Amino acid sequence: MSDTDTVPNAAPSGQRPADKAPARSFLNQLELDLRLLGMVGAFIIVCVVFNVLTDGRFLTPRNIFNLSIQTVSVAIMATGMVFIIVTRHIDLSVGALLATASAVMAMMQTRWLPDMMGLPLGHAALPWLSILAGLITGAVIGAFQGWLVGYLTIPAFIVTLGGLLIWRNVGWYITSGQTIGPLDETFQAFGGINGTLGAQWSWIAGLLAAVVAVLALWSARRNKIGHGFRVKPVWAEAVVMAIIVGAILGFVAILNAYEIPSRVLARDFAARGAEMPEGFTASYGIPYSVLLLIAVAVVMTVIARKTRLGRYIFATGGNPDAAELSGINTRLLTVKVFAIMGTLVAISAVVASARLTNHSNDIGTLDELRVIAAAVIGGTALSGGIGTIYGAILGALIMQSLQSGMAMVGVDAPLQNMVVGTVLVAAVLIDIIYRRRVGGK
Amino acid sequence: MDKQSDPHANGAPDPRASGASPLVELKDIRIAFGGVQAVDGVSLDLYPGEVVGLLGHNGAGKSTLIKILSGAYKADSGEIWINGEKASIHSPRDARRYNIETIYQTLALADNLDAASNLFLGREIVTRMGFVDDARQEAETRKIMARLNPNFRKLSEPVSALSGGQRQSVAIARAVYFNARILIMDEPTAALGVHETAMVADLIKELKAQGLGIFLISHDTREMMELCDRVSVMKNGQLVGTERVEDVTEDDILSMIIMGKNPKRDAA
């Protein structure tokens, strides 16, 4: 792709048959992104090290399940932060905006809709109307900040620094500083443990995803052949497909291996007035929140790579003047990018407050730093123009793994933050060295 | 302005005499940036198949004038006529509608994108679903590059990995692909080596032969004498004069640039 693809694939196809191309190494033939491999490698190392340090407690289905639901909120926002940073801006207000969006949603479902609209608590429309209100809040506030940045040319750092102070306290005023809860049960299903697909549907979702991935790879290949471009050998394509399918199904298998504790099951049966059969087991499977993250990741990746909007975002980041001279409305683009960020913040607010089962004033505190760190660890360059969605999600995953791994090992909290800070700086250094090596800028 | 600004002052035969309407007419263009009159009542014209050079010191107003035509700046007063009709150009997008393409001194490419993405920037080919059709863009880029610069191979790498000449050929390909009729080249060879400069010069000749009108800005007087049909010299935002290249020597041009007047004209 146009952003960080560094695998040498400049062989002049159409001029000489591919089989005469110089012998290429195994990895080259697979045409995998080296940066992606590097980050996956780093993630695996983190996991293995903590697994050894915790005597095998780190890589259990239960911990992997927890890790994935803990990552979702920051990861969703990190995908939006990629667009912000790629266009050479920054958003320091995401944690505070998350609190405002969360406050609006909590008040909608517990006070405003029941009191003003007369919808009783527990009404089926409550969670959805609340989420809608939250999304609109996030998008409008995001767009407003984008307008201040794009049209009034106030630096994004300042606008969102102001936003950081403003939105957290707007959230405070909306709720009068109270903790609002418990939230609607359907709403809570987006939080993680309270809403999962179960074993059977998880397998179905996994198989579906695998089929879609294989079809997508295959149609991309057919498209390339249709234009007479060089494609990688069939076996290499098959290996890549096998890796992807294996990863998807492996992830599902791990999540399905985490069984619901029997006392929880017994309680559920008791609540329905039934007796739990002897030896009955059930798995959690894929949490809805993780599905939400995957959906966001797919949509954001498609926007980044396949739409004009995405192309303009990266072009503007690479050279704002060139983008403007090419007829791109970079001001409006800034508004759009910040509106996307605000919407994603609201989605994260759903996940975060649902996970806590209530809204509290300090929700999302310091999330702006985690989100920026995730995007940057994931290879997003602050100088603009470079960044990937999968990188940001991997960055969030690596940070969350470090943090919860250290917590499991029993590292002091201050030391944990020192390590994460060091990793952030080191990750950027490695990225700079890597880019210099492969001859980028 | 005085009589020197009249392009028909010396009646040598040229395409303009045929009665064809000029491709571009800039009439009495003025623009000021906070007190400084960057362009002060300049009139220029350009005919199909003609290269008009713009010369002058840094800050003479050449680039500013040309940015008004390309939509990057908006003139305070004056008119732009295209094909004998009054045109309103308020943005680069407007300029493109009049088939005006600009190749900038600063190589206006997004370094992080590949050649095809740059070529189609702002005018992407989309599929029926509305997604950018990268494969088709690359195929089209390959076709046009085969014509303009057969050595061009690095199609799927960011243009930051390309040499100056290769980058300039991407910019020129952009103009050619979208059927520019009016081409503005702002120091197209400033960042290039000898061989690449020659390549761009050949391209200019070819485009001229195809009937495009080209405004060329350069500091290299010799290059201008070779490539242009007419040269216009600017100083302090004003037009010193427009001359057919066969009527003047390099020294005449230099004194126009430096002293702001044509010694021959004054002698006559």
UniProtKB/TrEMBL annotation, chain A:
Function comment: Part of the binding-protein-dependent transport system for D-xylose. Probably responsible for the translocation of the substrate across the membrane.
Origin species: Limimaricola soesokkakensis
Region (Disordered): 1-20
Lipid bilayer topology: Multi-pass membrane protein
Gene Ontology, cellular component aspect: plasma membrane
Lineage: superkingdom: Bacteria
Main location: membrane
InterPro entries: ABC_transp_permease (IPR001851)
CDD domains: TM_PBP1_transp_AraH_like
Subcellular location: Cell membrane
Protein name: Xylose transport system permease protein XylH
Keywords attached to this entry: Cell inner membrane, Cell membrane, Membrane, Sugar transport, Transmembrane, Transmembrane helix, Transport
UniProtKB/TrEMBL annotation, chain B:
Keywords: ATP-binding, Cell membrane, Hydrolase, Membrane, Nucleotide-binding, Repeat, Sugar transport, Translocase, Transport
Key word Oxidoreductase present: no
Location in the cell: Cell membrane
Residue ranges the record marks as coiled coil: none
Ranges where the ABC transporter domain occurs: 24-261
Pfam annotation, one family: ABC_tran
Enzyme Commission no: 3.6.3.17
SMART domains xref list: AAA (SM00382)
Region Disordered, residue ranges: 1-20
Name this polypeptide is given: Monosaccharide ABC transporter ATP-binding protein (CUT2 family)
Name of the coding gene: rbsA_1
